[in-house]
């Protein structure tokens, strides 16, 4: 197990050697994750671990992949997707062109869920979905649209609970334990690496999703990320966060209007 | 806005449980009146789809006020907090609560071990952990962590638990400060403030 002071040393060295700044990540979670990889990879001396991270860029990338939490699901929180389906998509219908951004998309389950909703609403053909993450490895998985077959039962239940009426299995092809989602869903997706700590706004969007990413940040970094979203959101656009996250402390009141009790806010000025 | 320097020294009572623990909580919580000097955090195994039922039930049964747990809410003495479904609950040094969606631990999210271990790191000898009824091994490692950091640990007497496995597992793996039946747990909590 590493000590607090060792964690701080690691954070400083990583910043110095690679320019990745984990200094504003929530320590409670970060420490668990660093301890986890430290043990998994069989280290017993912190110095040894530190010099591996320092001098082996390959290992550093592996560490970033492992300390980020990538757990995700399709149609996670079905009631959230129901609101998107019933209240948000109809408002986007009139637009000639719809831009969406999934920040911290992980392996893409959320992105494919959204593509399914857009397709069912007849909007996918005029949409463009940007999906970004700090972790390059998860983006590779997301691009392929291949998820474990054993998850499909749960996902199809989530899909149904979110108001889905189709046969969910029509959206993928099952093969040797994997479910490969249909190519047409991925046609409008663009994947790229983007770091919410240091990168800037790159486009203007009608909907931005950033779910269960801010929980890993301290309040200051949360504020930075939300300001970045604010800069990237068109007037009357929507910002969607995870069920336990809020913009309350980060933007001036009156600028956004919350949809009922959902974690969805509309930019009204 | 709450100031950072206030309440920097208060006790935390963290209660973990699984199957059979809800009925214990329903007997204990109504008996607690004011808890000015400490915070209560409840981590029980629950269905990932249960959004608010548990919170509503606890709020209904207890005199002490419940504070909804969202990411980075501040832990304050005098309130009850409940770990939300489908997240692990973690403790920050600045007395804020963090949530985490990482892998289940002991088939559970929230996991009792995860919260106990995290709370132990921050609250050390100001932490009191109680492990209730359940049929899974979650909680044992967490209690060990609390003990190692100088906190106090209490286990429900397995003979009084609907599901004795969880308290039994703890007792077999360490020596708790107290093994108590339900009325004794109530009495014990009432003395924490003194
Ligand atoms: C728990 S997943 C959330 C996945 C999905 N949005 C959901 O709610 O199911 C968190 C993701 O945030 C990413 N992440 C962490 N730090 C980041 C950063 N600084 N910039 C961009 N993404 C980040 C992680 O790599 C991970 O894939």
Number of helices of chain A: 10
- N-to-C series of helices and strands of chain B: EHEHEEEEHEHEHEH
Radius of gyration of chain B: 15 Å
Terminal-residue CA separation of chain A: 49 Å
Structural class of chain B: alpha/beta
Write a structural description:
- The complex is a heterodimer of chains A (269) and B (194).
- By secondary structure, chain A is an alpha/beta fold.
- Chain A has two domains: 64 residues, Chemotaxis Receptor Methyltransferase Cher, domain 1, CATH 1.10.155; 190 residues, Rossmann fold, CATH 3.40.50.
- Helices cover 42% and strands 19% of the residues of chain A.
- In chain A, α1 runs parallel beside α3 and α3 packs across α4.
- The longest helix of chain A is centred in the N-terminal third of the chain and has 15 residues.
- Chain A is globular.
- By secondary structure, chain B is of the alpha/beta class.
- Chain B has a single domain, classed as 3-Layer(aba) Sandwich (Rossmann fold), CATH 3.40.50.180.
- Helix content of chain B is 30%, strand content 22%.
- In chain B, the strands form two sheets. Chain B has a seven-stranded parallel sheet, sandwiched between helices. Chain B has a two-stranded antiparallel ribbon with strand order 5-6.
- In chain B, β1, α1 and β2 form a beta-alpha-beta unit.
- At the A-B interface, α2 of A face β6 and α3 of B.
- The complex binds S-adenosylmethionine (SAM).
């Amino acid at each position: 197990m590493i000590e607090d002071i060792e964690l701080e040393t690691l954070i400083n060295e990583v910043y110095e050697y690679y320019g990745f700044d984990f200094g504003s990540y929530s320590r409670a979670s970060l420490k668990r994750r660093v301890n986890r990889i430290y043990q998994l990879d069989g280290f017993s001396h912190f110095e040894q671990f530190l010099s591996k991270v320092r001098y082996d860029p390959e290992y550093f990338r592996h560490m970033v992949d492992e300390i980020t939490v990538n757990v995700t699901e399709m149609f996670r929180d079905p009631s959230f997707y129901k609101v998107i389906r019933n209240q948000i998509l109809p408002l986007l219908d009139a637009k000639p062109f719809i831009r969406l951004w999934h920040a911290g998309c992980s392996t893409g389950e959320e992105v494919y869920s959204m593509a399914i909703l857009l397709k069912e609403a007849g909007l996918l053909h005029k949409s463009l979905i940007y999906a970004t993450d700090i972790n390059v490895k998860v983006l590779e998985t997301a691009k392929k649209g291949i998820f474990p077959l054993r998850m499909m039962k749960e996902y199809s239940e989530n899909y149904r609970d979110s108001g889905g009426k189709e046969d969910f299995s029509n959206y993928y092809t099952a093969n040797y334990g994997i479910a490969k989602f249909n190519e047409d869903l991925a046609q409008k997706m663009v994947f790229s690496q983007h770091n919410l700590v240091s990168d800037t706004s790159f486009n203007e969007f009608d909907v931005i999703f950033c779910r269960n990413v801010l929980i890993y940040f301290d309040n200051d970094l949360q504020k930075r990320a939300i300001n970045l979203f604010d800069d990237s959101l068109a007037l009357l656009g929507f910002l969607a966060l995870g069920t336990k996250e809020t913009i309350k402390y980060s933007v001036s009141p009156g600028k956004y209007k919350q949809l009922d009790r959902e974690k969805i806010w509309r930019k009204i000025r | 806005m709450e100031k950072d320097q206030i309440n920097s020294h208060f006790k935390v009572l963290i209660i973990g449980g699984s199957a059979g623990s809800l009925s214990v909580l329903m007997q204990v919580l109504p008996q607690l009146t004011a808890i000015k000097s400490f915070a209560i955090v409840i981590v029980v195994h629950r269905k990932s789809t249960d959004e608010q039922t548990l919170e509503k039930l606890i709020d209904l049964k207890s005199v002490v006020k419940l504070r909804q747990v969202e990411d980075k809410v501040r832990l304050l003495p005098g309130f009850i907090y409940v770990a939300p479904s489908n997240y692990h609950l973690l403790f920050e040094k600045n007395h804020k609560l963090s949530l985490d969606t990482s892998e289940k631990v002991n088939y559970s999210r929230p996991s009792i071990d995860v919260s106990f271990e995290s709370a132990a790191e921050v609250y050390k000898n100001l932490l009191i952990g109680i492990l209730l009824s359940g049929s899974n091994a979650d909680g044992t490692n967490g209690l060990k962590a609390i003990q190692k950091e100088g906190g106090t640990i209490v286990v429900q007497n397995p003979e009084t638990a609907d599901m004795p496995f969880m308290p039994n597992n703890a007792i077999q793996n360490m020596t708790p400060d107290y093994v108590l039946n339900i009325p004794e747990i109530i009495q014990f909590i009432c003395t924490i403030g003194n």
